[in-house]
């Protein structure tokens, strides 16, 4: 069933954003601290048993200089620098294996896949630990790790990794640094939003953002209208820590996709499923309607969190062909 507002109301849904006064200062400080560490990106050739694709095992310095893993895939022996799509992964998934990521190199582009620190134990394996586990109480999962302190919060580390991943992708000679897109679904969609807003601040310009069924948008409403995980982790935490709920949402405001959307000017394609109980449609439209750049949205009325799946991927390929050739 449809689980949120009617479509005509969703198209007009523009809620007030709970934005901290020092939002920009917080992220300027965070990115500045991160760039004090050498990016130290390494690309080690990797035998993935793929005849038509070159694969590199990537390591780069993310938040705090922590080593973050990834994959770089290109068509075999590319001629000249290629457009590159930097891909981010959904909640509790990891980078998996190179043959999981053949769509973009099959279409003639490079693909840079960022592993997600401390995740990869839920549905696809990962290889990157989170060496700064956070302090304070937390419930199972990552969503409440360090949530009582914005500086200690898990997503501060993760979103910094996102920006550094864009920098690392741009550093490889097979990649055209002037033709970079970011992409992801669910948590990965929230990460793509963060990249679109934050990466240009350090000169890592992005050409396009593919933002599918994004997580971490209009977070307070999400917690109020769905019990589905991962937002259910926040509900459970606030139910136990009754006297700290407002502290939780004060931290989350620094990581809410609606606030990143209001600062992102990169052209973007969003997608939403109107039967999505994981990232309810109104939370997606809140980010979409606040998005500052040129934008469009794919609406899947009879789909949930899976969104458009293969048809959405086909849309992405068509857009990439148009913007990258």
Automatic annotation (TrEMBL):
Region (Disordered): 120-142
Segments of skewed composition (Low complexity): 126-141
Domain spans labelled Acetyl xylan esterase: 2-318
Entry-linked Gene3D superfamilies: alpha/beta hydrolase
Name recorded for this polypeptide: Acetylxylan esterase
Species in which this protein is naturally found: Microtetraspora glauca
């Amino acid at each position: 069933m449809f689980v949120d507002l009617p479509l005509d109301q969703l198209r007009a849904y523009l809620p007030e954003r709970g934005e901290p006064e020092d939002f920009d200062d917080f992220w300027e400080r965070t990115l500045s601290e991160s760039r004090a560490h050498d990016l130290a990106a390494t690309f080690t050739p990797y035998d993935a048993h793929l005849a038509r694709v070159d694969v590199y095992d990537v390591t780069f310095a993310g938040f705090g200089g922590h080593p973050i893993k990834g994959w770089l895939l290109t068509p075999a022996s590319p001629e000249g620098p290629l457009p590159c799509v930097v891909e981010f992964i959904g909640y509790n998934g990891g980078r998996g294996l190179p043959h999981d990521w053949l769509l973009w190199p099959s279409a003639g582009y490079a693909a840079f896949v960022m592993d997600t620190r401390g995740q990869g134990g839920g549905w696809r394996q990962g290889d990157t630990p989170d060496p700064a586990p956070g302090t304070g109480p937390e419930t199972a999962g990552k969503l409440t790790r360090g949530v009582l302190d914005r500086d200690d919060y898990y997503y501060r580390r993760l979103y910094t990794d996102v920006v550094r991943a864009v920098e690392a992708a741009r550093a490889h000679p097979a990649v055209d640094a002037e033709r970079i897109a970011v992409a992801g679904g669910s948590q990965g969609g929230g990460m793509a939003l963060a990249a679109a807003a934050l990466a240009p601040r350090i000169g890592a310009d992005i050409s396009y953002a593919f933002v599918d069924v994004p997580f971490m948008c209009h977070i307070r409403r999400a917690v109020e209208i769905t019990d589905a995980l991962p937002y259910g982790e926040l509900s459970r935490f606030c139910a136990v820590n009754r006297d700290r709920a407002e502290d939780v949402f004060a931290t989350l405001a620094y990581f809410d996709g609606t606030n990143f959307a209001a600062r992102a000017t990169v052209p973007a394609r969003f997608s939403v499923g109107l039967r999505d109980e994981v990232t309810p449609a109104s939370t997606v439209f809140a980010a979409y309607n606040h998005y500052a750049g040129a934008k469009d949205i794919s609406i899947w009325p009879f789909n949930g969190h899976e969104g458009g799946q293969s048809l959405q991927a086909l849309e992405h390929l068509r857009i990439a062909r148009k913007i990258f050739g």
